[in-house]
Design goal:
Blueprint (H helix, E strand, L loop, with lengths): L1 H15 L4 H8 L3 H8 L7 H11 L3 H6 L4 H9 L3 H19 L5 H15 L5
Helix pairs in contact: 1-3, 2-3, 6-7, 7-8
Length: 126
């Protein structure tokens, strides 16, 4: 059962990139036959294959193995940020949402959040 779920996620990654099995295999350094067996749930994926896929297509091991999507990882992948920058960006976004959901707004909360993250994202809050 586990192999089938992993295979479905590998298939999803391949389809998102609009690649056939041969192209995907070449991209990640696996044979077309190995990719096919993984996708069909007929082969237990190796840790090395997971690492190759993660490195070459920007997927997380958490997604491939457990189906968990990490928002910070997605932000870092799509926008070319470091993991730390992505986490800070996500944190700032959540603080802005909190700020917008506060009846009177909270300017002090927003200013403090920006000050805390200034060094990581490299912006001037003054």
């Amino acid at each position: 059962m586990w192999e089938k779920q992993v295979g479905e996620r590998v298939y999803q990654l391949r389809m998102e990139r609009n690649l056939n099995r041969a192209e995907f295999g070449e991209l990640v350094g696996l044979s077309e036959q190995y990719v096919e067996k993984i996708e069909q749930g007929k082969h237990v994926i190796s840790a090395a294959a997971i690492c190759k896929i993660c490195e070459k297509v920007g997927a997380s091991a958490d997604f491939i193995i457990r189906g968990i999507v990490d928002p910070a990882y997605m932000i870092s992948t799509f926008y070319g940020l470091s993991r730390e920058q992505a986490k800070v960006t996500l944190d700032i976004a959540m603080k802005v949402i909190d700020f917008l959901n506060t009846p009177n707004g909270n300017h002090a909360l927003l200013q403090e959040t920006l000050r805390q993250h200034q060094a990581v994202v490299g912006i001037d809050t003054q």
